[in-house]
Please model this.
Amino acid sequence: MQNPIIVALDVPDADRALTLARQLAPFVGGFKIGSELFTIAGPEVVKHIRQTGAMVFLDLKFYDIPNTVAKAVASATRLDVQMLTIHTSGGSNMMCAAEQSAQETARELGRPAPLVLGVTVLTSMDSQELSETGLQTEPARQVERLATLGVRAGLRGLVCSPLEIVALRKILPPEVQLVTPGIRSANAKSDDQKRTLSAREAIEAGANWLVIGRPIYAAPHPVRAAQEILTSRIESERSKRGCPAAFEDMIS
Ligand code: C5P
Model:
C-alpha cells in the first residue's frame, strides 16, 4: 500500500509551496493544491510540484454545467494531476460528464485517469444552513444521499469528514476511495477543525487518503511531523490493545 498522507499546501505563494514540496516529497504520498495557491500561482505550480515525483491533488471543487466541468476536468487531466474535486450537488449529468472527461482525456494522453473525487456537504454547514438553501434534512443524511448519487454517476472516490467514514463504508462499494481531512493526533491542537480523528483511527475506519495541512506545513520540522504522524500512536496502541500491526506496516 502507498503512503496515504497528502499534505495540503495551504500557503500563499509558489516559493513556499515548492520549498515544502521538495522537503516533504520523499516522505508523503502527495500534495493538495487548493484555491488559495492555484489562484495566485496557477498551472506552473502544479507542474513544478509534479516534478518532485509526488502526486498532485487539485482541489478546486468544480461546480458548473456538465459541459464546463467536463472541460475543466480535461484541463486538469492535461496538467497531470492525480486527483481533483467536483461538487456532487452539481447532479448526476455533471458528475458523469466529469468522470467521462477524465477517462477520455487520460486515454488520449496514454496515462491513468485522475481520481475524480465528489465533495458532498461542506463540513462547515449545519442543518440550519442546509434548510436556508431549501434542504430540510440533516447533513449526515444529505452526505449519504450525495455520496450514493456520486458513485451511481460513476465517481470512484469521495471526500468526507473523518466522522462520515464509517457510515459511508457501510453503504458504498469497497473499491470507492475515501479521502479525508480533519486529521489530528491525540495531543495536537485541533485549530478550527471540530471533528477530528488521528491518522491511525481514520485509516482503521476505512479512509484511503489523509489530507493534512497545518500539523505538517506549520510544524517547526515538517518532515519530522510527517514521519511522526505515520508512526503515531504505535506505542500507545500496542500497550493499550496489544496491537501487533504498526501503522507503518499498513502503509508500506
Ligand atoms: O490544516 P488542516 O489539516 O486543517 O487542513 C485541512 C485541509 O483540508 C485544508 O486544505 C482544508 O481546506 C481541507 N478541507 C477540510 N474540510 C473539508 C474539506 C476540505 O479541512 N470538509
Observations:
- The chain has a mean pLDDT of 91.
- The pocket of cytidine-5'-monophosphate is lined by residues 8, 10, 34, 123, 159, 161, 181-182, 191, 193, 211-215 (CB under 6 Å).
- The domain at 5-251 is CATH 3.20.20.70 (TIM Barrel).
- The first strand starts at residue 5 and ends at 8.
